[in-house]
Amino acid sequence: xxxxxxxxxxxxxxxVIAIAAYFGFTHTGAKSTSDKTIKDxxxxxxxxxxxxxxxxxxxxxxxxxxxxxxxxGYTVDNVDxxxxxxxxxxxxxxxxxxxxxxxxxxxxxxMYEDGVKPLLTAxxxxxxxxxxxxxxxxxxxxxxxxxxxxxxxxxxxxxxPSAKGQELAKKVNAGQKxxxxxxxxxxxxxxxxxxxxxxxxxxxxxxxxxxxxxxxLKNTVTVDSYxxxxxxxxxxxxxxxxxxxxxxxxxxxxxxxxxxxxxxIWEETNVIGVSQEIYNDTISVSKxxxxxTPEFEKALSKAFINLAKTKEGKQVIAIYSHxxxxxxxxxxxxxxxxxxxxxxxxxx
Length: 348
Known about the structure:
Layout: H1 3-22, E1 37-45, H2 51-58, H3 61-71, E2 75-83, H4 87-96, E3 101-104, H5 106-111, E4 116-127, E5 145-150, E6 152-159, H6 163-173, H7 180-184, E7 188-190, H8 196-210, E8 220-222, H9 226-235, E9 240-244, H10 247-256, H11 265-268, E10 270-279, E11 282-286, H12 294-307, H13 311-317, E12 324-327, H14 334-346
Helix pairs in contact: 3-12, 8-14
């Protein structure tokens, strides 16, 4: 072989190797998976339930998510799960990129949407009570789930067994409209400012009905979780607590055990206000995370949707009353944006 021929052959080999490397193929012809290995995947949860219970319930998610992502062609070495100290902490972690994935409500997503993208919306069993009229919730019977899945829910304002709570419930159940003085004279237990059911939608309801927001209420305390809020409601430390529509189902047992109330939660509490429908919680991802490529987001969506169909997966996501997931649309959370606009205007 001439010197020129040898040189040409070397050039051809170099070019072929370069092309193979560019398109991700090894010398055996198999596509390289080196770009599909993720060292750490950081997942944040909001503290809507007791943090220790969330940590315990979601522990199996580490292995389950790894398995599902493996089926989508991704190898994850470690899944790190944390519960934020607040809803804002989870939103800030996603915005900064210190969290890759967040189980957050729509309100938290909207507040941090410059750095956060909604990937999935949770679905859960619908309820047999979905009334806009508060009095219709107060038949003394448990709120029950129905077979149909729903991607929406309502915030309900629960009046507890305190004297003021019972006074307000009596008026509502008699068909009387509560006055602003009725509401502002009660002690409210409010959740984080980015909680849809515990803060944002109650503000929208107050604005619609009284041209006020929660910022105008005279007597409020912040509850760090719905569990601690329910405990305060039971003991009479607060008179009203806004929460998600099926919250009383979740705390019915604790009401008579841990909270030591003499009667059931259905007998001792009443709904005095109901918000418009709210889209369910999101599984959102960080826009700043280098892990969140379009390809991985697609794989992650499939992984969570399929995970929710397994027995083990259902047990994990049940901590948030999630039963399944569907692709999220940013426009679904326009109600959150309207509510937050009301809140911002009230602070001017």
